[in-house]
């Protein structure tokens, strides 16, 4: 039995070992109740990302309602191109154009925080580094050889890779450090990326905000249902002895 246990434990070692190598994600600290952050994230998303990416199930006016954006602000700050409030938030670029320019289509981002995780998206957006061998002159620690250019590079400033040193293994980029200053301070940039990630997390499951409100009504309804069911039961059984 002990041998079996030892064999089992040993068999797990490589798995645990691998889980610890590779780039680490940083906590995005998302908070879906932070409406100001969600609004900022939406603003950044429509101005910096929607040229290439869509949120294909989200309508502008639904987003505005969920995030407390009034109609005038929605029209002034959020609508992309000639979109109308009732339109879906689809990208400005056509999918086949994106494929022509980047070699891959820029994916719809509705579920990105779910298939990756909010922390991954947050870290990814902060992990671009200069790499002259790549078509856009940049690469990414979290997504090696990524086809997306560093669209936030001017705000963040350029970064260089921190390479790994593991005996026998080819060095890989495992972190970044600053190379040039951007137009935002590091703290401002972190907040911006956090707001963007917060917004994308909301967009992945907009009903989360609604579910909490709905939950209360469901409980009240169940309460009433119980009382009626109880009274009904008493009524049915009152003559049975
Ligand atoms: C110029 C076009 C372009 C812009 C603008 C752009 N992206 Fe991208 N993005 C791409 C392409 C192309 C890919 C696919 C990369 C690949 O598969 O190699 C991508 C991939 C991604 C991914 C990874 C998806 C995955 O496969 O897991 C995320 C996250 C992402 N983009 C977020 C953003 C955010 C947030 C913004 C705005 C700040 C943004 N992108 C702006 C073109 C763009």
From TrEMBL:
Residues annotated as domain Cytochrome c: 36-200
Keyword terms: Heme, Iron, Membrane, Metal-binding, Signal, Transmembrane, Transmembrane helix
InterPro entries: Cyt_c-like_dom, Cyt_c-like_dom_sf, Cyt_c1
Cellular component terms (Gene Ontology): membrane
Names of required cofactors: heme c
Pfam families per record: Cytochrom_C1
Binding-site list for heme c: 49, 52-53
Name the record gives this protein: Cytochrome c1
Organism annotation: Candidatus Thiodictyon syntrophicum
């Amino acid at each position: 039995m002990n041998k079996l246990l030892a064999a089992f434990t040993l068999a797990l070692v490589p798995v645990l070992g691998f889980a610890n190598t590779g780039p680490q994600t940083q906590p995005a600290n998302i908070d879906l109740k932070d409406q100001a952050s969600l609004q900022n994230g939406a603003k950044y998303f429509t101005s910096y990302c929607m040229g290439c990416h869509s949120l294909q199930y989200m309508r502008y006016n639904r987003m505005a309602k969920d995030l407390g954006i009034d109609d005038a602000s929605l029209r002034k700050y959020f609508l992309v191109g000639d979109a109308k409030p009732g339109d879906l938030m689809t990208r400005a670029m056509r999918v086949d154009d994106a494929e022509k320019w980047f070699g891959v289509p820029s994916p719809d981002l509705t579920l990105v925080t779910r298939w990756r995780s909010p922390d991954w998206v947050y870290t990814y957006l902060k992990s671009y580094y200069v790499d002259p061998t790549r078509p856009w002159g940049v690469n990414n620690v979290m997504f090696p050889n990524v086809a997306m250019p560093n669209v936030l590079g001017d705000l963040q400033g350029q970064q260089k890779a921190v390479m790994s040193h593991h005996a026998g293994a080819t060095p890989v980029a495992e972190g970044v450090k600053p190379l040039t200053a951007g137009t935002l301070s590091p703290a401002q940039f972190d907040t911006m990326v956090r707001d963007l990630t917060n917004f994308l997390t909301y967009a992945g499951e907009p009903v989360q905000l609604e579910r909490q409100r709905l939950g209360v009504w469901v409980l009240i309804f169940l309460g009433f249902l119980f009382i009626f069911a109880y009274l009904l039961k008493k009524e049915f059984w009152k003559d049975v002895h």
